[in-house]
Write a structure and sequence with these properties.
Chain lengths: 333, 333
């Protein structure tokens, strides 16, 4: 578990897009973001207060989060200098970079000397159990996609925000790097060893109040041959009471698989529901979340209306039109 | 890849059952088994020639395989003495034990000094790729079970033996510890990191002759919530042309999951086939393999006849009645 709140490290980000992890933290957990740290040449700006390490420490920040992609997969000397200083100032470090903080001997040595933690959120920090399949208390919802990267994390975070706003009990349960950095906790599911995948999802979503919703971040797709095993573990480890179908209608083939067409929403509904019933016979599909970013406003509305009509389920683009329909469907369960 | 042939280490096995890995090697790959090494107090006997390390070396053995379970999860001092001597005599060591050879500093030091390899077949030795889903040449068959431990490995090994006997081209592709030790090669799928599961199965079953069959060892079950993700990766990474349904009719609940009933063969057929069609639209279910060990001869025959009648598929217990029906069905494809 990563100590919050954060100072967001934007480094020498070449543009705003390079800082999208930091942007995600600021958008979804503004209370976690005390300020931003920018180096010379940084072209990203989150609109947060620029702070020195000392100022951020005084403002209560506990962890310096690398909220930016690095260039060429290397932690540069300029970055390293700031990271070492941060450890010396008493910050933990957290990163979702491919090249790990814990693979840098100098950072490891300084962290040890200062008693600070290095969090590489691509690497599991927990020994997860093997799933036991025992029914847990509380309620769980999971987004399952026609493909990877269709907006499942966004859907979950938006749903969580809308439920909290209505005073409902909900927790977003991160299963990927960005989600873990945003919330400070979670399971890096794609890095978990096969035998423990479903168990790690059980661990992530334990017994809870009867009226509490765990919103489990979805991954992969049952129809994506590279990652379907991960999706399966989410469905069987998560024991969802509700499924949301996620889709991006303009995609021409499965991500990274040119020979593979996307399944229909009906195919995903039927397959996911059959599999979910193994762990939770009461599971229902409650709605559709569509990523309409490549459609005009009228196209998006027409598409959503068509899906609602065809499938008899509420359909929305949470980014464009909010997630109220999905919250309504969950509370009606 | 483990160097063959082997000297089979039976240690101080308390009974024959404790040496079942060695028994599997002797049964399925007799050419791999030069002899057996037994210590004082060993109550197992494979009927192979008892050999000293020197005799086995002269007979051509390259690897000492630990073919026996150890007591209390510890590699005892008595075992250690033999293992060190074997390394010094020029043997590699191979083991499927939970406690790893590579976690024993003395074995690691001696192996390094002697230039020998330590193979812990529970740990991947390869950096597997992410699956790319590209259609491969050659044919593949996979057993999918109603549950774990219903005889999928046995079915695959028996099918492989029967196909070779008919002069057909086939290769058993091991995906578990015992299978890897038997054949000397394979993927320890339950220990592979989530993102690379399907890719490891693609790696294991590469392009081959058009008339060659890879017989992929099945794991887990789509209906076993602890391990279903592993089964999924086999179906999508394996791109099977043919599926065999495996079942043990007397089991009262899913292995290790008291609250979970077994699915019907029809449920497994429909679910596995739908998922297999994502990677290979031509995939067919070609037969049923039933583990009838807890049934009388007449019960077994009646059960198999009933399954054949009900499902319109050939059904056999490969151990009891041979796998000819399954070979016939494969060659008829």
């Amino acid at each position: 578990m990563i100590q919050t709140p954060y100072l967001l490290f934007l480094g020498d980000a070449p543009d705003q897009l390079a800082a999208k992890v930091a942007q995600g933290i600021k958008d979804w957990r503004p209370d976690n973001a005390v300020g931003q740290f920018r180096m010379e040449g940084c072209n990203a700006d989150l609109g947060l207060t620029d702070m020195t390490l000392v100022q951020a420490k005084e403002a209560g920040a506990k962890t310096l989060v690398i909220g930016v992609a690095n260039r060429g997969g290397v932690i540069s000397a300029a970055w390293k200098k700031v990271l070492v200083m941060a450890l010396e100032e008493g910050f933990d470090l957290a990163s979702g970079l491919h090249n790990l903080l814990s693979d840098e001997p100098d950072l490891v040595a300084v962290a040890e000397a200062c008693g600070r933690a290095l969090h590489d959120v691509r690497v599991p920090e927990v020994e997860y159990p093997i799933a036991n399949g025992i029914k847990r208390k509380g309620k769980r919802v999971l987004a399952v996609g026609t493909d990877c990267s269709v907006g499942k994390m966004y859907t979950g975070l938006a749903l969580d925000a809308a439920m909290r706003e209505r005073g409902l009990k909900s927790t977003f349960r991160a299963t990927g790097q960005t989600g873990i950095l945003i919330t400070g906790d979670g399971v890096p599911l794609d890095a978990v060893v096969a035998d423990f995948m479903a168990g790690s999802v059980e661990w992530l979503t334990p017994d809870n109040d009867d009226d509490h919703w765990d919103i489990i971040e979805g991954q992969g797709s049952l129809f994506h041959v590279s990652y379907s095993g991960v999706t399966m573990a989410l469905i069987h480890g998560g024991q969802p009471d509700a499924l949301i179908l996620s889709h991006e209608p303009t995609r021409e083939h499965m991500r990274g698989l040119p020979g593979y067409a996307l399944p229909t929403l009906e195919q995903v509904r039927d397959m996911a529901l059959s599999l979910a019933h193994v762990a939770n016979p009461a599971c229902q599909v409650i709605g559709v979340s569509v990523n309409t970013q490549h459609m005009s406003d009228s196209e998006a509305k027409a598409y959503l209306a068509e899906v609602e009509d065809r499938m008899g389920l509420p359909a929305t683009d949470p980014f464009r039109f909010g997630s109220e329909k999905l919250v309504d469907a969950l509370t009606a369960l």
